[in-house]
Specification:
Number of helices: 10
Shape: globular
Number of strands: 2
Strand content: under 5%
Structural class: mainly alpha
Mean pLDDT: 82
Helix content: over 70%
Amino acid sequence: MIDKSEKFNWLVRVGYLSRAILYFVLGLVALTSANQIAEGTNGIFEAIKAYPAGTAILWVMVVGLFAYALFRFCSPLFDIENNGSDAKGWGKRLGHAGSGVGHLALAYSAYQFANNSGGSSGGGAKEAASGVLSMDFGGLLLGLLGIALFIAAAFQAKKGITGEFMHRISGRAPSSVRWLGLAGYLARAVVYTVIGWSLFKAGFMSSGASEVKTLGDAVASLAGEGFIFTLTAVGLLLFGIYSVIQAHYRIIPELDSDAGVPQFRA
């Protein structure tokens, strides 16, 4: 059963706050430190650790990112976001499951740095991809995962342009959240496309697991793309600000204890 208590509600909000820190620092590092962004995702956590109370912030992120991942896993299992069971609904629910996997990986990376055991940039993702490629039909699996990321990127762009994310935000939120979300979701669409392309190439074009990109690696790979890189970095920074607002104003769904039906509560 899903924990419907206030504790679960607050854990999810800590998850959004952790995501806010991650994306804000990612955008900030991309705009201000070429050396650190070149290190990919590890550069982001190194930057956070260097801040005052950085290790404590990392531990908060470990808990928050893990809680956010669990929240996302509830979508395919219990349909708490009311996406439905048609093809479109399952597409969104599986997308949320993919988000859960990605945020679990980020939680583990944050744990490594908080515990003074950070590894090489993207090493975990590349090792996992290498393991998948060694399996029968592993290339097909990675390639399909890349296609799934392309679809997720399209959903991110659609979400930003149409403003459908506002349906999950309380009416008490500041009006600027609409434009922050637009910039942020478009930037995430760019990053998802880059990650998807790296998986597609590794799976279908035999480019090897070393080409698989993580969140930070994807941004770093855009560094030579001029205004595209700058706009993406600014968008990710704004997505961090948007996520702070989400942490407070996001409507957290829960199951109705009597009917077992997903309900939204502000």
